[in-house]
Amino acid sequence: MLKVLRQASLGVVSALALTTAALANPYEEYAGETLIVNFPAHPHFDAVMKILPEFTKETGIEVEVDQLPYLKMRERQTLELAQDEGEYDLIAYVVFSKADYVYADQLENLARYFMNPKLADPAYDADDLIDGYVYNIGFAGGNKGYLEGKTGSLFGIPYGSETSVLGYRKDIFDKHGLKVPETYEELLEIACKIPELEPGMGGLSSRAASGHHASHAFLLHLAPLGGRIFDDQWNPIVNNEAGVQAANALKTIVECGPEGAASFGFGEALGSFLNGDTAMFLDTTVVAGQINDPAKSQVVGKVGWAMHPMGVRRGSQTGGFGIGIPKNAENKEAAFLLMQWLTSKHGDKLVAMQGGNPSRFSTHADPDVNEKFPHMATFGEALKHADPDWRPIIPVWGKINADLGTTLSKVLTEDLDVQEALDGVAERTKAVMDEAGYYTWQ
Amino acid sequence: MRAQTLNRATPYMFMAPAAIIMAIALLYPLGYMIYGSFRDWNPSQSIGESEFVGLKNYITLFFDPAFRESLSVTLTFAFAVVVAEMVIGVGLALLLDRNIRGMSVLRTLFILPMMIAPVVVGLMWRYMYHPTVGTFNTTLKSWGFDGIDWLGQNALLSVIIADVWQWTPFIFILALAALQSLPRSALEAARIDGATAWQQIIHIKLPLMMPVLIVTGLLRLIDAFKVLEVILVMTEGGPGLSTEIVALRISRTATEFRELGVAAAMSNYLLMLLLLLTVAMFAITRLQEARAQRAARQIQED
Amino acid sequence: MQYERQNPAFYALLAALIFMSVGPILLMFVNSFKLDVDIIGGRTGLLFLPTIRNYETALCDVLWYEPDHLDFCSLKFGGAFINSLIIALASTVITLVIGCMAAYALVRFRFMGRDTISLSTLMVRMVPPAVLLVPVFGLWNNEFCIDKATMVGGWIRDTFGGRGDVCLAGTHSGIILVYVAMNLPFVIWILQSFIVQVPRSLEEAARVDGAGPFQVFFKIVLPLIKPGLAAAAIFTFRIAWNEYLLASALSDRNTKTVPILIVNNMSEFNVEWGVIMATGMLLAIPPIIFTLFASRQIITGMTAGAVKG
Description:
The complex is a heterotrimer.
Chain A: H1 2-23, E1 34-40, H2 43-59, E2 62-68, H3 70-82, E3 90-94, H4 97-103, H5 111-114, H6 131-138, E4 139-140, E5 153-154, E6 157-162, E7 164-169, H7 170-175, H8 184-197, E8 202-205, H9 212-222, H10 241-255, H11 266-274, E9 278-284, H12 288-291, E10 303-307, E11 319-324, H13 332-343, H14 345-353, H15 361-365, H16 367-372, H17 376-384, H18 397-414, H19 418-435
Parallel strand pairs in A: 1-2, 1-3, 8-9
Antiparallel strand pairs in A: 3-11, 4-5, 6-11, 7-9, 7-10
Helix pairs in contact in A: 2-14, 8-10, 9-10, 9-18, 18-19
Chain B: H1 2-36, E1 39-40, E2 51-52, H2 56-62, H3 65-96, H4 103-115, H5 118-128, H6 135-142, H7 155-180, H8 184-192, H9 197-224, H10 229-234, H11 246-255, H12 260-301
Antiparallel strand pairs in B: 1-2
Helix pairs in contact in B: 3-7, 3-9, 4-7, 7-9, 9-12, 11-12
Chain C: H1 8-31, H2 36-40, H3 53-58, H4 77-108, H5 114-124, H6 129-143, E1 145-146, H7 151-160, E2 166-167, H8 172-195, H9 200-208, H10 213-224, H11 226-242, H12 245-250, H13 258-265, H14 273-307
Antiparallel strand pairs in C: 1-2
Helix pairs in contact in C: 1-14, 4-8, 4-11, 8-11, 9-10, 11-14, 13-14
C-alpha cells in the first residue's frame, strides 16, 4: 500500500517536473524543425541511431540521418560544405578532417553558442569531457596549429571517443599460463609464441591492408615506442629508430598473425578475432559491442581487456569522431541543441548503454554502464593515456597517410627494407610539406 | 518548297537529340577535363577559383613512381586478361562447336557472369578468396593443402582470375558465332582431303576466324581498361599498389587526395592511351575490309 | 535436326564449365540465407538452417512489419532499389528513342557532318567512366545549376524543397543524363547494323502512300528492328543498373542506387557478409531474369556490336 502511494506521488512529482520544464522549455522554439545530420556508418553511430528517437520525444525536434562510410562521408562533406547553402545541419567528422574544415572556414566556432544563455545548458559540465579528445578533435588554432593552446578555439565536440586497448582470449592465456603483456617486448614475444602453442591460431590480429589500414596499425605502435611523424619544426622523423622499431613491430605482428594477415582491413582483422582464429586484438575500443554479440562472435565471454602495452611511454590512439555545425547550415541553433544533448551527461550515458563509446569521465565511472559493460572501467583508464598528438592533423595529412600506408604495405608483402621504406616516406613527406609551405619560417 | 526544307532538315531533326546530349554530357565534360588538367584544383573550389599551373600536373605524374606503377599494373592486368580470355574462350569455342542438345541453355548459363553487376562479382570473389573462411582456402585445406594468400601475396593474379571468370564467355560466344558462320565448303573440302582435326583448326578455322578474333580482342582490351568496381570491392587497390589500376587511382586522387587537377591529367593520359588503341582497331578493320574487297574483286575477275 | 553423340569426357567438361560459371552465383545465393556466424564460421556445405533474416535487414524500409532482430532500420535498400529502377528504366528508354533516331539518320540520309558524327560516335565508345569522373563531378555540382533566385530555380525549390542552387548533381536526372550520354554511342552503333537490313523498298512504298519521314520511321522501321531494340535495351539497362562510380559521385542521400549501397555497406567496421550477399542477390536478380528470358537477343546484340567493331 505504502509502495503504491509512493509510486503515485513520484508520478505526480515527475509530472510536475515535466510541466515546469515545459514552461521554460529551451527546445520549444525549435520543436517541429527537422535537422539533417551526416553520421558515419560506425558502431558508435549505430548506437546513436537508437537514442535519437529519445531526443525527438524530449524536444520535438525531428532528426533525419544520412549515414555513410567514413571516407565517403568526408567526400560528401567536402562537397556540401563548399556550397553557399548546405544540406547538413550537423556533421560528424573524422579527426583529420578538422584541419581541412577549420582551415577552409567551414565550421562554426562554438563560442557564440556556449555564450548564448538561451541555448547553453548550465548543467553541461564541459570539464567532464575527456581532455585529450577535446584537444584532439574539438580544438584548432592552438599548439602546432591543430591542438589546444592559448590561440586555439573550439569548433567541435568529441563524440564517440575511441582509444586502443588490448583484447585477449582469457581461455587461451589461462590454458598456457601466459601473462597479459604490459610492454611491447612481452607483446611481441607472446604474439609469436601463440602460433606455436596453439597451432593454427594467430598471435595478434592487426589491420595491415594497403592504405589507411596499414598506416593506422603503424601509428598504433609508433606513439608508445616513442616515435612521431614530425619533430617540432615539421621535419619528418618517421624514419628514426622509433619509427623503424614500430614498423618492425607491425611486421612481426603480421608475420605471427593469422593467415592472410597482410591483406586484412579492419573488418577482416576483427573478423579473425571474432571467429576465434587469433588470440589478441590491439585496436580501437569500438569493437567491444560486436565481441559480445553472439550473432557475430564466437568468443563471447572469453575476452579480457588490458591497456595498450607500453613501449617507452603510454600512448594509445585518439580516434573517433567529433560533431560540429557547418557554416552553411540552415538550422544552426537547433543543431547546437542536438549536439549539446548528445554530448550531455544524459545523452552520453544513453548512448553508452546502447553500446556506444562515451566521451565523458563520469560515464566511464557510471555504475549502470559498468554493470552492463564491465570493460568500461578499463576503457576509461585507457582514455586517460590517450595521446592527442598521436598523429598530425594537418591538411596535407591525407596525402602523407596514403603514401605511408601503401609503402608499409609493400614492406609487409613485398619484403621492402624497413629503413629504406621509411626513408622514402620521409623524403616524400618533406617534399609535400615544403610545397604546403611548412618551411616558410625556417 | 516547305516540304523540301523539311526534307533537308529531317536528318538534322533525327540527329539533334543525340547530338545535343552527347555534346553536353560527353564532349563538353571531356573538354572541361582537359582544361582542368592544367590547373591546381581541389574539390572545395569551383574551377574558376583554381590556379593555372601549365603542364605541372602532367610532369609531376610522369615522374611519379606511384602513377607509373599503377600504369604498369593497368597494362599488365589488361593484357593478361585479354590473352587468358582469348586462349580459353577460343579454345572452348573450338571444343564445343558441336551439334549437341541444349547448346542454347549452355550459352545462357555462360553469359550470366557478364550480366551481373561488377560490384556483386567483386564481393562474391572477395568472399571466395577470404584467407580463412573463403571457399578456395577451405576447399584446399580439406584436401590437405596449404591455403593460398589470394588477395595478399597474389592479389593481381586473383583479380585477373575474377575478370577471366566474368569475361571469358564474351570471347567464347563471339568465337563460337564466328566458327558457326565459317563457310562449310572449305571445311568439307579439308575433311575430304583427309586433314586431321588439328590441321583443320590450325590451317582453316583459325585463319578464317582471325578478323573477328582480332576485333574481339581489341574490344575486350579497351573494356579491360574500364574495369574498376570489381577491383575496388575486392582489394581497394592493395596490397601496396599491386592492384591499383589507373581508373582506381583517378578516383582516389580526386576524392581521397583531393587533387582534381592531377586526377584530370591522369584521366587524360588514360584517354590518350585508349585513343591509340581505338585508332589501331580502326586501322585494322579498315585494312581487313580493304583486303576482303580486293580478294572479292580478284575472284570476280577470275 | 540430328544431335551428335559425344563421349563422357565431353559431358564431364561441360558439367565442369557450368559449375564454374554458375557456382559463385549459387554460393552467393546460399550464403544470403545464412547467419553471419555460419558464414565466417567457415561451415560450408548445405547443412544449415536457412533464414530470411538477411533479406529482412536489407528490405526493412519497405517491409510491412518490423523484423524482431532489428532495433532500427539502417539500410534503406528499398529506396535505393526504387532509385535504381527509375534511373535504369528512364535512361534505357531515353537512350533507345534518341539512339534509334540518330542511327536511322546516319543510315538513311546523306547530310553534312554525317561522317564526322559517325566517326566521333565510334571514338567516344572507348571513354571509360573513370575519365568522366572529374569533369562530371565538377560540372554537375558547380556549372550545370539553376540559380535559386531565378524563377525556375525558385519554383523547383518551392515545389521539391532542398537548399541552395538547383544543380544536376544529386538528382535522378543528373545521373540519367550521364548514363544516356555514355550508352548512346553503343546503341547507335548496334542499331545501325539492324537498320541497314530494313529493305529500302518498304520505306519508299510507305512514302509513296504519303507518309512523312517520322511516320515512316515509327510505323515501318521501328517494328522491323525489334530484335535490335531488345538487345540494345538490355545492354543499356545492364550498364545503368550496375554502374557504381559515376552514380556515387553524383547521387546524394535521396538518390543513392543499389551498387552504392552495397559498396557503402562493406564498411570496414562491420562486414556483414550475410546482408551484403542478400543485397548483392537482389541487385543481381533483374539481370539474371533478363538473361534467362532473352539470352538470344543478348547474343545477337553482342555479335552485332562486336563484329563490326
